[in-house]
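Researcher: I'd like a structural prediction for the single chain below. Treat it as a standalone chain; there are no partners to consider.
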Amino acid sequence: MKEKKALLLARLFFILIATFCGTWIGWSKQAALEYSLFAFIGAVFFVLLEQSTRIISSKQMLLATLGLFGGLLIANLVYPTIPETIMESQKARLVCNLVFGYLGIALALKHEERLSLSRLKFIVSNQPQQRNILIDTNIIIDGRLNDLVATGFIAGNLIVPTFVLDELQQIADSVTHSKRTVGRRGLENLEALKEQISNLQIMEKDYDDIPDVDQKLIRLAKELGAEILTNDYNLQKVASLHKVPVININELAQALRPAVFVGDKLQIHLIREGKDPTQGVGYLDDGTMVVVEDGRPFLNQEVNVVVSSILHTSAGRMVFARFPDEPVQPKRNHHSRYSRHR
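Model: Treating it as a single chain, here is the predicted structure.
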C-alpha cells in the first residue's frame, strides 16, 4: 500500500513539473498558457501509458521492442528505394517507419506463443545466481515451509505475489470461523517467515484478465522463469502441462521418510483394528500405516513385528507385518493377500 501511494505521488509530481516546464518555455514566446496546457496533456498521456504497462507482461514488452526495432531497420532499407516522383524522401521515410514499425510490433505479439524466451532469466533481485521461487497460498497456510527454510534446504529468492496476499486476506476475512482461523494462521506464518529470512520479496503483480490464482501463478512463473513451491497436487499437474517446474513439499516429505524393507523388525504400538477384524493397526513415527496380521488381541500394546510386505500407493505406502514367530511369506503371496483384504 505504501508503494502504491509513493507511485501515485511520483506521478502527480511528474505532471506538475511537466506543466511548470511548459509554462517556463512558453513564457519567453508569449504563449505560456498554450505551452503549459500542451505539457499537462502530454504528461497525463505518458502517465496513462506507464500505468497501462502493468497489464502487459515482460515477455510481451520485450517482443514488442524487438519487433519495433526490426520494423524500423527494414523501413530504413526500403524508403531509399521509393522514387522522388512518387513521394519525397522525408515523407517516404516517415511512412515506412510507421508502416514497418507497426507491422514489426503486431507480428511479434501475434506470434508470441511460437517464440520461446526460456533461456532469458527475468531477475527480480540483486543476486543473479539465485533462483526465483513463487509461493502459493496453500504452502503459506501449511506452515511447514518455515521449518524447511530454517534448515537451509530452500535456496533462492522466495517471492509472494500480491494476488496471493489478497487471497490470503480474503480467507482471513471470511465469515466462516474455520476459514478465518486458517487465513489468520497463514498471515502469521508469512509474518514469521518474513522475520526469519531476508530474501522474501512481495511482488506488486496482478493479472486482471485472469480470475484464478493458480493460473496467475503459472503465468508469472513463466514470465520470471521461476519455480512454484506448493503442496497442491492439482496445481502441480496443471503447471507441468505448462512446463513450469514445481516443488511439492509433500513429495519432499515422502522422499525423506525412513526406509523400511521386508524382513525388518519393528516395534509398533497398535491403536485400532484393521479392515480385517483379525488385524491390528499402528503407525511409524513418520505416519506410515503398519497393518499387523493377527494383531487384534494386542490393541493398545507395544508389539515386536517383522515386515512381511510393503505396498506403495498414490497416498503413500502401507507396511504389512507379522509376529516374528511366524514365517515371512514371499512378496508375491503378501500382495495377493492384501488384494483379498482390500
